[in-house]
Amino acid sequence: MRPTIAVLAIFFALLPSSVIQAEDVTSDELPLHRLIDEHIEARFPSWNAVPASLCSDAEFVRRVYLDLTGTIPSARVAYSFIASEHLEKRTTLVDELQSTEQYARRMATYFDVALMERRPDKYVTSKDWRSYLADSFMSNKPFNQIAAEILGADGVDESLRPAAKFYLDRDVDKDTLVRDIGRLFLGVDLQCAQCHDHPDIDDYLHQHYHGLSVFVAGSKTFKQPDGTMVLQEMITREVEFTSVFSPDTTQKTGPRLIDALLEVPEFTAGEEYLETPSRTVRAIPKFSLRELLADKVSHESPEFSRNVVNRLWAMMMGRGLVHPLDMHHSSNPPSHPDLLDRLSKRFAESQFDTKKFIRLLTLSDAYQRSSLIPEGVAPANVPPESFAVANMKGLSPEQLFDSLLTATDADRILAQQIDEALTEQTLDAAEPEESDKLITVREELRAAHVAEFVSLFGTPPGQSESEFSASLPQALFFANSETISAWLPPRLGNLSERLVSLVEPDAVAHELYLSVLSRLPVEEELAIVREQLQAAPAEQRRTAITELVWSLLASAEFRLNH
Questions:
Q1: Which of 146, 236, 421, 550 is the most exposed place for a label (fewest CB within 10 A)?
Q2: 0.90 exceeded by the pTM?
Q3: 3-state secondary structure of 430
Q4: DSSP string for residues in 260-283
C-alpha cells in the first residue's frame, strides 16, 4: 500500500509546532508535588523561561497512559476521560493505572532496558527476568530491596535466580560490571578512569574505578552438576593498580564506593570459605564482598538514592535533573540542585517507595505542563532543563508496538498472525501438559514481532537508550512493514472496519483521531478527512479509510509522547 499525496499532506500537517519551532510552611513540610513545583518555578526567572499552561485532558490521558502502562488509551477510554467533569479525575486515573498489571509490566520493561540494555539472553531468560521485575513492582517492593537482590544475587536461590541476570548475562566480566554498576546504580561512568584519573572529569579518580572493582573481582561463574550456571566468589580483599602515566608506581585499594573506603573482616588462612573450593565445590566465602556491595549501595549510598530519583524523573519528564543520567559530577551539576537533594531525601525516607514517588510526580504542575511552546515565545526561552514546557519523548520500541496495536485494535489480527506461524502439530496439541508449551510458543512469536521494532527503533545491545531521532529506514518501515500492513485494512473488527461502518465523515474523523492520537480533531483536520472521503469513489472508500489510518500512525504526533 502506498500513501497518496493527500494523505501525506495530513502527515506533515500533524507535525507539532514545538518540533518546528502558598501556605506558610517550609519546603520540608510541603507535599512532594508542591515541593517539585516550588523548586521548578523558582528557577524560571534565571532562564527567562516562559512556562506553558497545563496540558489538556487529551494530552494528559495519552501521556500518563504511555508513562504508566506503556501504551496509549483506547478511543473509548480517551473520550470518557476527556468528557468527564470530575474534578479529581487526573488523580483518580493515576491511582487506577498504578493498580494494574499493565503498570507493573511497564515498569519491568523500562528497568529491563535500563539495567540490561537489550543484551541477548545467556543464562537467565528475559521472560523470567521481566516476571521478577513485574512481580516486584506489582507488590511495590522497595526499590533499594530490588537493587540489593540484583547486586547480591548468586543465582542459586530459585526465587531470586532471575535477579542474577545482571551478573550472569554479562559473563561476570569484571570491567563490564564495574562500569555498569557505577553507571546504573550510582550514576557515575568510571570507564575512562580505568587506566588513570579521568582526563576530563576531576571527580572521577583511578582509585574510584579499582575500589569498585574489588567488590566483583573475585566473582566468577560456576556450573552446577545439573548444568545451571551460578556465581561463586573467591576471596579478594584489595586490588593493585598502576596508572599509565606512572607505570613504576603501584597503588592498592580495598573495596570503595566512590570516596567511602570500606573495611572487611580478616580470616585465618584456610578458613575463609564455608567449604574448601574445588572444581566440583562452589567457592562460598564466609564474608561476601558482593553482598557487602548490595547492602552498602542500597542502604547507605547517597549516590544510589540520587541516581534512582534522577532516572525516575527522566522516565516521566523526558530528561534528568542531571543529564546525561550517568554523569553525576561537579562539572555537570543538576539543573535544580536543591530539588534533587530533597527528592533523594524524601525517596529514602519513604523506604524507596517507587509507586508513591511516581504518583506524586504526576500530580505536579511540572509533569502536567503542555508540550506546546506558548505563542510568541522563542524556543530559547524554554530550555529543556527548565521544565517550563513538557519535554517530548519518542516512544520506545515496546511502546510503539503496543500503541500501534491499541490504535488499530488489531489484537485478533495479531493472534491470527501468530496462529499462522505455529506449526500444525503445535496447534493440534490437545494434551493438558501441552497447553503451557503452547502459551510459551505464542509469547515467543509475539516477542519476535516486538523484536522487529526493537531492531529498528531501539539502540544496539549494551548501549543505553538514545534520545529520539527519526530516520528514513523508520519512515520506510511504516510504509512497508508486513506486520503493520496486516493491521490496517478493514477486517476482524479492527479500527478500519469500525470506521468503514460509519456513514458521516465527521464521525469517521472523531473515531479515527480518538483511536490514534487520543484527542478530537480540530476543524482543519475535519476538513481534510471530509475531502479525502468525499473524493473517493464508493468502491475505494475502504482504501481511503485505510490510508487515513496509516497517515496518522506515521505522523510525528503519534511517534512522540507529549
A1: 421
A2: yes
A3: coil
A4: EE-------TT-SBSS---SSS--
